[in-house]
Design goal:
The complex is a heterodimer of chains A (358) and B (300). Chain A has 358 residues and is α+β, with helices and mostly antiparallel strands. In chain A, 42% of the residues lie in helices and 9% in strands. Classes of the chains: A alpha+beta (358), B alpha/beta (300).
């Protein structure tokens, strides 16, 4: 059986000792999991290693840890893959990020993750008397929220969220994905209030920096960032919710600038995102003035790029695309990837360019 | 080598030095850039947030224009790469959807066939041009320079969409390139994190704290400069750097180079030719270290 080197982050708050790394060797089949490796070390060498686990089948979401610096379920990560993904052949296992460590690999999910989930009111809020029998809901509505319902609350996305890393108040990917589960549910009667709350909160849907880390680490394909983008779309398009964070203004001004000019005019985007006619917007513009002046001083921003932004040649074709896509209510292919494919050939998404001519 | 070249919006807007340096460097490398000068903005994920079909159609238009040239497509912006790859994934996955989009493109005489090749300059350099071939053209090895890579999220994640199954090393290309040019890659915490740019108008504090932290980490790790294949990252890391320094409460002052600028320096171009004088954070430290090194062997 192959040998694997595990480097485990140890910390016992009662010892008074700072966190440290401890190295172990395990001999297990290569299809066995990192969790199997940790439990083997616990059995054979050191029973005091703290790890939370239960089902060992990627269902319960208990064993979230960072393997080689990235949040994963320990039970769902094979030793051979973890070894291949390490820099020096040593598999590092440490507690998840963005949450306080209780002991070794166990983090305090209550203090961060569950608190944030509570924040979004994670239950249905229907109106009126419940029906005599079950609620009848269109199948497509439930398909819409299926992805967010797949969450097992392992905390991987919370751990690796780059916004939360700098802003601990950010509601975060897991809770916001859960919020979409109720926003997208036709039985819920508080859709607009939920969206308004999350749009107006300075640490809500507009605090996500779109870094894709949550999409990358989620073991269940929930794609929390995509759910956050759906929340934004519902807030701006369906409910026209104006927020103090410039979220709606930014999205609308970006979209309108491309419609009008075909290419982005950054100066106009800044001006319109802040809402230059509002006193608050003027303040924000004023605050960004030194940045603009620095750009001018270095010739990065020229009077031409600042004042005259030309339209793209053939922009009427862009506008025709807008008319079509904005002209029909039902968006198609919102969530579908691969379904409905009728062609036989399976081309790679990223083909190789032809041989260089030279 | 010829490519259908999509420069993006920002390289012709607030980072004109990127577009200019790319043109110079391509000439020296013998890459002919057939510019898609009628193509539109990729939407940067913002239009997709507003209306996914709109973003898909706009990018299908650009892909169709590239396919008309019969050449693979190249971009110089991580954000364009990510936003366009997302649309391509949706378009390529579903013939019915693609047919619907193509009906909208038809009046302009355009049609998108699934499977376009669209690569950032970084990917093209490593996978198609070849670092060995690039090394042969280096006339001023960047020996003595310590460069921190800064990738930009959109070219890194999600790996399932960005061809990492076929090219698992894509997350190491900047380090490989820095070495090929004779410089030393610097390992630091923020290389694969977010610059914060997407929320600069929505949560300035969150945005600048991200930029400031990464720059500070790179300085602490001994970097002389950062290099990025993304002009939006450049805006937050360079143009906004003085403000980011205030948010994180420390002195910064780390030069940030566009990818073609770093290549251009090694190919013998002068910093001014590459537009480095347009940067907000002065590049004198980089230039000084270069001057202290070996003189260019050949500038032609």
């Amino acid at each position: 059986m192959p040998d694997y080197a595990l480097r485990i982050r140890r910390y016992d708050p009662e010892s008074g000792r700072p966190p440290y790394w401890a190295d172990f060797q395990v001999e297990l089949d290569d299809h066995r999991s990192v969790l199997d490796g940790i439990l083997d070390v616990k059995d054979r060498e050191d029973g005091s290693i703290g790890i939370r686990c239960s089902c060992q089948a990627a269902i319960c979401g208990s064993c979230g840890v960072r393997v080689n610096g990235q949040a994963k379920l320990a039970c769902n990560t094979k030793l051979r893959d973890a070894q291949a993904g390490s820099d020096d052949g040593v598999i590092t296992v440490e507690p998840m990020g963005n949450m306080p460590v209780l002991k070794d690999l166990i983090v305090n999910m209550d203090a961060v993750h569950w608190k944030k989930v509570q924040r979004i009111v994670p239950w249905l809020l229907p109106e009126g008397e419940p029906p005599e029998r079950e609620y009848v809901v269109p199948a497509e509505s439930m398909i819409d929220v299926t992805q967010s319902m797949a969450c097992i609350h392992c905390g991987a996305c919370v751990s690796d969220c780059l916004s939360m890393e700098v802003d601990p108040l950010f509601i975060g990917p897991a809770a916001l994905a859960k919020a979409y589960r109720f926003v997208g549910d036709p039985r819920d009667a508080q859709t607009e209030q939920r969206l308004r709350d999350l749009a107006e909160d300075p640490h809500g849907i507009y605090d996500c920096t779109h870094c894709f880390n949550c999409v990358e680490v989620c073991p269940k394909g929930v794609a929390p960032m995509d759910q956050i983008m759906r929340l934004r779309r519902r807030a701006t398009r369906d409910f026209e919710i104006s927020d103090p964070n410039n979220g709606r203004r930014h999205e609308e001004s970006f979209t309108k600038i491309i419609q009008k000019k075909g290419l982005l005019d950054e100066r106009k985007l800044l001006q319109d995102s802040f809402g230059a006619l509002r006193p608050q917007g003027q303040l924000q513009l004023l605050r960004s003035l030194p940045t603009g002046l620095r750009g001018f001083a270095r010739g990065k921003i020229s009077p031409r790029t600042a004042l005259f932004h030309e339209r793209l040649e053939g922009v009427e074709n862009v506008q025709r695309i807008y008319e079509h896509a904005e002209g029909h209510a039902e968006e198609i292919n919102m969530y579908i990837l691969g379904e409905g494919e009728t062609e036989d050939e399976k081309e790679p998404a990223m083909g190789e360019p032809p041989e260089p001519a030279t | 080598m010829r490519v259908a070249y999509w420069p993006g919006c920002v390289s012709r807007g607030f980072t004109p030095e990127l577009h200019g340096s790319m043109a110079l460097v391509a000439g020296r490398l013998g890459i002919e850039l057939v510019e898609l000068d009628r193509a539109n903005c990729c939407g940067a994920g913002v239009i997709a947030e507003h209306n996914q079909e709109l973003a898909d159609t706009l990018n299908a238009r650009t892909f169709a224009m590239a396919q008309k040239t019969g050449l693979p497509m190249m971009n110089i912006c991580s954000t364009c790469q990510g936003a366009q790859s997302e649309c391509q994934q949706r378009l390529d996955a579903d013939a019915g959807y693609r047919g619907h989009i193509n009906e909208v493109l038809a009046p302009e005489g355009l049609h998108y066939e699934k499977g376009i090749t669209n690569k950032n300059f970084l990917w093209l350099l490593v996978e198609d041009y070849g670092l060995d071939r690039l090394r042969e053209l280096v006339v001023r090895p960047l020996a003595g320079l310590r460069i921190g890579p800064f990738y930009g999220c959109y070219i890194l994640r999600p790996t399932s969409r960005l061809g990492y199954d076929r090219h698992p090393e894509r997350g190491r290309y900047l380090e490989q390139l820095i070495e090929a040019l004779g410089a030393t890659p610097v390992d630091y915490e923020g290389a694969r994190k977010c610059c914060g740019f997407p929320v600069i108008t929505m949560n300035r504090e969150t945005s600048l704290r991200q930029a400031g932290r990464h720059i500070g980490d790179a300085i602490d790790a001994g970097a002389d400069a950062l290099v990025s294949p993304c002009p939006l990252c450049h805006l937050n890391l360079d143009l906004q750097q003085p403000d980011a320094a205030k948010v994180v409460g420390r002195d910064l002052g780390l030069a940030v180079l566009h990818l073609p600028q770093l290549v251009g320096l090694a190919l013998g171009f002068a910093p001014r030719e590459l537009g480095m004088s347009k940067h907000v954070v002065r590049t004198e430290l980089v230039e000084g270290k270069l001057e202290a090194g070996p003189a260019p062997a050949l500038a032609g």
